[in-house]
Amino acid sequence: MLLRIVWFQLLAITLASTYDHQCLPYPIDSVCILDHIFYRPGDLVTFPTGYQEYHIQQPRSLKESGSKVTIFDEALYEAMHQPSRVEMEIVQMKGLTLPPTLLLGNFANNLVSSVSVSSGKNYRITYLDLESNSLTDIGFVSSLVNLEMLHLGSNNIRSIPGSALRPLTKLSYLYLSGNHFTTIPWKDLPCTLIHLDSYLGVVETVDFTNVNFPSLEYLNLRHNEFSAINVTALVQTAPNLKDVYLYNAKIDQFRLKDIKVELTAKNVTFVEVYEDYSRCFYGDRHEFVDGKCVLLAHLPVGTGKAVALSLVVLGVATLIVYLAYLVFRHMNR
User: Fold this and answer.
1) Which residue, of 179, 184, 202, 222, has the fewest CB within 10 Å?
2) Highest taxon of the source (predicted)?
3) pLDDT tens across 309-329, in order?
4) Would you say the C-alpha torsion 273, 278, 281, 287 has a positive or negative sign?
5) Residue 50 neighbours by CB under 8 Å, 6+ apart
């Protein structure tokens, strides 16, 4: 039995890899830049000491392949000497265990489907970016009570539980765009919000009744599925609102114009929608009309343009008839 245990231990040591990471030259002493990192649970990794911030960037030469960190866990964080800031994008990460002492975490553009936190611990993190991952459950954020910026855009989130966001009493910037939830728990969102992005989604209803956002300055709900919005309630809810993006295909165009007028009267900028920037900036067959990029052929012709076009057509027709007459005379000589 003892021999079998020893054999398994030797096998584990054999399978585990050892990596000694060194920082690239960088003018800020406290920042370590790495262009390659490879880690699996059980691997023996070492990092230089004296750094409070780690940035993992994409390799700029063919010497190294892309980085791969299957999970960011306590062992990896300890090996990095517990830095206060970690930016680790595009490393194929699937799991994340948040350390209580981390202040800033950028784990965007990975494959993270689960985030682990421990109940009863005081998490210091104020900035967390998990954009473009595979999250479906965001219950973990309720433990991160010091968050000021939270980026959850472009995940697979199908519901926003109010209990997850309610404890975040310091949250100022919240990004939820590109997900699959149909409702937003407006009453449970922190009243400290300054910036809220939830565009390119499937939100079906918007209700600002008994909601209070005294600090909200920016709101983007563009390209969702709701067909109505109470602008009066919105302005009462967010008296300091400055910029709002509300274009939705299901809202009648005449109603959108009324919304724009109402918001403009309250000194709120209604930001127009441009459906295709490339066409309108680089094409000569499109034009901005009522905040939309439309094909010139689809534009209604005004009275002046109609008269001018008619004169041109008439002139061309007259010229053709005259040329035909000259040809006819020449042939009959």
Assistant:
1) 202
2) Eukaryota
3) 666 666 766 777 666 666 556
4) negative
5) 29, 30, 81
Contact of 54 with 86, CB cutoff 8 Å: yes
CA-derived radius of gyration, the chain:
30
What is the Cβ-side half-sphere exposure of residue 300, based on CA atoms within 13 angstroms?
4
pLDDT at residue 9 above 60?
no
Of residues 96, 152, 148, 99, the one with CA closest to residue 123: 99
The span from the CA of 93 to the CA of 100, in Å, is 19
The Cα 195–Cα 172 span in angstroms is 6
CATH architecture for segment(s) 94-299: Alpha-Beta Horseshoe (3.80)
Q: What is the number of other CB atoms lying within 10 angstroms of the CB of residue 245?
A: 19
pTM: 0.80
